[in-house]
Specification:
The protein has 331 residues and is an alpha/beta fold. It has 10 helices and 9 strands. The protein has a 5-stranded mixed barrel, surrounded by 5 helices. Helix 3 packs across helix 5 and helix 7 crosses helix 10. It is globular and about 70 Å long. The N and C termini lie far apart (64 Å). The chain binds the ligand O=P(O)(O)O[C@@H]1C[C@H](O)[C@@H](CO)O1 and hypoxanthine (HPA). The ligand O=P(O)(O)O[C@@H]1C[C@H](O)[C@@H](CO)O1 binds next to strand 5 and helix 10. Pathway: Purine metabolism; purine nucleoside salvage.
């Protein structure tokens, strides 16, 4: 399009849609009415979940439960059935907990469950918060910091993910050995912003973020539960979502060394590791990523929920067995 054409078009648009209330028609900056607190727009985003606020939330929970959890569990899409294994349950819907976000995704029940698993005191998030829901990283990782104040030392997390290598199958379980944090590498780390040393150090190493001892225990537990044939270990790629990936994106993720792709977990892992919590995470492979343009089975959320249901019993038995193996003084 030539410059001349553009100018002609602008002229005609102006004729058809005359500007109303144009700021340029009056001199000086124009006030905007009814926009709320100006500071909300003009200052860097603050983490409103300060240490003291998180302490307040934890205290609210402590006043209502006798359970003193050392193990935290976070259930991914369709994996909320894990709470069925918990005994002596005390449940708190997220909507009842002061200052807690609420779950907006199908397959995420939206409650905190305290109780016992294999005779150990646990806290389980049945439903997590995702960046794509519109939550910021402070909201996504709030439950981890609440767990820390409550005394959690070990974290077990699950998620639904798409498989990248050709030797993965739908229904496989992939233990996270490592991750690629696409949001974090682009500046969206949950540890960005002023660092409160009460949580942890400014700069942390992530070389051993997924605890080796727990991974080995999980492999042993998988053999004992009959999950061995479905077990893989690999690299989880965290993307923002909520759209699934294009063919070119899937090919890129595979080329970069990814084994599975999903929209969660990594921010929680980082915040947990930052505060010294031992982290274990696994993905249920709910679909294979589309690596070819003529692929006729693109991923969809309903299918992920269904695969979750099919694997529920096996995964529940496995996680229970793993929790039983955790030595609570192990680092
Ligand atoms: O919470 P997870 O990571 O299991 O959720 C994944 C990503 C999307 O929320 C959803 C896609 O089906 O599953
Ligand atoms: O293919 C996927 N991509 C991203 N997130 C997912 N969660 C389940 N499957 C997928």
């Amino acid at each position: 399009m030539s410059t001349q054409t553009v100018l002609r078009y602008n002229g005609s648009a102006e004729r058809h849609f005359p500007r109303q209330n144009s700021l340029s028609e009056k001199s000086g900056p124009q006030p905007l009415k009814n926009i709320g607190n100006v500071a909300d727009f003009t200052r860097p985003q603050k983490n409103k979940y300060t240490y003291e606020v998180v302490e307040g939330i934890a205290k609210w929970l402590q006043e209502r439960t006798s359970i003193k959890p050392k193990i935290g569990i976070i259930c991914g899409t369709g994996l909320g059935g894990l709470t069925d294994e918990i005994t002596d349950k005390e449940e708190f819907p997220y909507t009842d907990i002061p200052l807690f976000p609420s779950s907006t995704v199908a397959g995420h029940a939206g409650k905190l469950v305290f109780g016992r698993l294999e005779d150990k005191e646990v806290i389980c998030c049945s439903g997590r918060f995702h960046y794509y829901e519109g939550y910021n990283n402070y909201q996504v990782t709030l439950s981890i910091r609440v767990m820390k104040i409550l005394g959690v030392t070990h974290l077990v997390m699950s998620n639904a993910a798409g498989g990248l290598p050709s030797d993965y199958n739908v229904g496989d379980i992939m233990i996270l050995k490592d991750h690629i944090n696409f949001i974090g590498m682009a500046g969206g780390s949950p540890l960005r912003g002023p660092n409160d040393e009460r949580w942890g150090e400014r700069f942390i190493s992530t070389t051993h973020i997924y605890n080796k001892e727990m991974r080995e225990q999980a492999k042993k537990a998988a053999e004992e539960c009959g999950l061995g044939p479905y077990l893989k270990e690999g690299v989880y790629c965290m993307v923002g979502g909520p759209n699934f990936e294009t063919v070119a994106e899937c090919r890129m993720l595979k080329l970069l060394g990814g084994d599975a792709v999903g929209m969660s977990t990594v921010a929680e892992s980082l915040v947990a590791a930052h505060s010294g919590i031992t982290v274990f995470a696994f993905s249920l492979i709910t679909n294979m990523c589309c690596m070819e343009y003529d692929d006729q089975s693109p991923p969809n959320h309903e299918e992920h929920l269904m695969i979750g249901k099919q694997r529920t019993a096996l995964i529940q038995a496995w996680v229970r067995n793993l929790v039983g193996k955790i030595q609570l003084n192990q680092a």
